[in-house]
Amino acid sequence: MSRARDRRLMRDKEMVDAEFTSHPFIFVRVLGNPALPERYMVTYQLKGLKLEGKQIVESMRHEAEIYLHADYPRSKPKCIMHTPIFHPNFGDHICIGDDWAAGENLVSIIIQIGRMICYQEYNPKSPLNAVAARWARENEKLFPLFEGDLYQAEISIDLDFGGDTAGPPKNGAPGPEDDMDIELLGPSSDQGEDLEIELG
């Protein structure tokens, strides 16, 4: 293994830790040796769809495995689902797009799969599941199943130094009201209504 790939794997892990620690919907763990983080299991708690017999029903738990193989990042990683899903672009693997650039990172892949699960992204013109592709074309009005942003919100900090001054007191001197208000903004947890549909 090259040192460049070693550095890339570790940088990906650092970015994953930063983005998904305390994430409300996405949970990521390394499979195998954490000193060589090339295989991940990602659990999504997002509204998606699966088949039960001939019925399309809601599913709120999805597991995807992402393998950063020896040719990564020159080639896109291998991604497979470990839980059933009804989606045009999921089959024996997950189609994360035909175009791949080595500059893409693991965080963006994890987010993309989440967006696909809840039908924020889907491509019925290049399907791995033809039945799901036809159904998706006929039911576009139902999508997305969840409209929230899967990237964690940036922390918004509002500094209120009080008084009539235009900014913080100079020379470190306390202002008339030396208060600080901090507001933390996060993603919405609303994932919409339940969905149950029967195939004809």
Question: What do you see in this structure?
Answer:
By secondary structure, the protein is α+β, with helices and mostly antiparallel strands. It has a single domain, classed as Ubiquitin Conjugating Enzyme (Roll), CATH 3.10.110.10. The chain has 3 helices and 7 strands, in the order H-E-E-E-E-E-E-H-H-E. The strands form 2 sheets. The chain has a 4-stranded antiparallel sheet, covered by helices on one side. A 3-stranded antiparallel sheet has the order 3-4-7, with no helix packed on it. Strand 1 and strand 2 form a beta hairpin. It starts with a helix and ends with a strand. The mean pLDDT is 85.
Could you give a short description of this structure?
The chain is 20% helix and 17% strand. It has helices at 3-20, 106-117, 130-138, and strands at 26-30, 39-44, 48-52, 55-59, 62-67, 78-81, 196-198.
User: Regarding CATH, which class?
Assistant: Alpha Beta
Radius of gyration, in angstroms, nearest whole number: 22 Å
- Range of strand content: 15-25%
What is the ordering of alpha helices and beta strands? Answer: HEEEEEEHHE
Helicity range of the residues?
Answer: 10-25%
Number of helices: 3
- Describe the strand arrangement of the main beta sheet, using strand numbers: 1-2-5-6
Tell me, rounded to a whole number, the average pLDDT.
85
**Name given to the CATH architecture:** Roll
Q: What is the CATH topology?
A: Ubiquitin Conjugating Enzyme
| Shape descriptor | globular
CA(first)-CA(last) distance: 51 Å
Low-confidence stretches: none
Helix-and-strand structural type: alpha+beta
How can the largest sheet be summarized? 4 strands, antiparallel
Report the count of strand segments: 7
Q: Which superfamily, in CATH terms, is the homologous superfamily? A: Ubiquitin Conjugating Enzyme
The overall number of domains is: 1
